[in-house]
């Protein structure tokens, strides 16, 4: 096992990784920007190094400085968390090549193949995994978009090949929208992902977002840990996630899990990853692979009892997965509520500021992953998510009741947060019934305006 690991991240996920390290006897190294001198992840680490000014581009994304810091600290492994450099195959390759360092993540070649959405679609098709109807080749002209619109039927989505989180995705509802949508998808792809390549997919109007957690070791074992349902989204950003999905029956669950396993095996993938699908009318379609730990990995941990970050570390150290597919059992239900410093009454706009009160709930079945305390300044430079509330109970019904209790006792003030929004969702009949689809929240919010 590693002796000392550098976490190339901040916030709750940095702490989450360091917790797993501590349990494995690994010393931890934090990096921090000028804005994060007193941040929770710095406090938690055994050692911490400043890597630059507040803007992420000059600190948490500064590959050179991060690698130098790992060297200076004598770290023998780097964990990227999620966001920042986590899906950057070029950084992974540099970390792999760095003397004495192990990259805690998939091989950079697998990241490269799956990170590009058109290539990922081809890999999945080769493994007999159904993909969203569309093209796996780049699309260049509005005429092509119109042709594909006629072939698949409108609406279609133009998506940036390097995209994610709904960025670089434009919906085309009729032929005359093709021109403008193509231009703006290319522009966003270029701006956010440095790649103007786009492709076209059928846009499903009311799907469920269902994703499968994968663990794969370097000894040919590829397992799935069941699925998560992340259908509650605001503008394609996940807000509440749960496991298992209320939308799958046993046979669909089995097929989607097996499809995910086939797909990542085809890609020569190791470590943890997530295969995302859209589910509509009892059919599932591959959407993309996230080649990293995800925010919502927690709900899977709660229902399987498996520590996914620990397994990431063990896999990266060359160890074998300590269980087989038939040992993975889903027990109970878990829901994660993202605690974002955002104002739900103002389009979920970020609300930076000082955290005046912060007393998270506790008790049976309640887990809070965070890296903040009262008095912290929530910086506008980073992600607005400041904590995650994860609630677990034997059934979904009881999980909803326990969530109500936990959310009522989440005492947080200073910046506006979406805690009040979560409380309201627990009274929403569609959410309670588990019938919400990815378009649901946007329709509700827009109808209220
Ligand atoms: P990510 O999963 O990294 O956030 P995407 O940008 O591919 O990346 O997808 C974000 C969300 O956009 C999905 O969860 C889903 O709600 C929606 N979406 C993506 N592709 C489609 C599609 N073809 N049809 C309907 N919704 C889609």
Automatic annotation (TrEMBL):
Q: Does the keyword Ligase apply?
A: yes
What keywords are annotated for this sequence in UniProt? ATP-binding, Biotin, Ligase, Magnesium, Nucleotide-binding
* Record GO terms (molecular function): ATP binding; ligase activity; metal ion binding
What start and end residues bound the annotated signal peptide?
Answer: none
Domain of life of the organism in this record? Archaea
Asked if the keyword rRNA processing belongs to this entry, the reply reads no
* Obligatory cofactor(s): Mn(2+); Co(2+); biotin
Q: Where is the Biotin carboxylation domain?
A: 1-446
- Protein name, entry field: Carbamoyl-phosphate synthaseATP-binding subunit L
- Specify the species: Natrialba aegyptia DSM 13077
What residues of the intact protein does this structure contain? 1 to 449 of 599
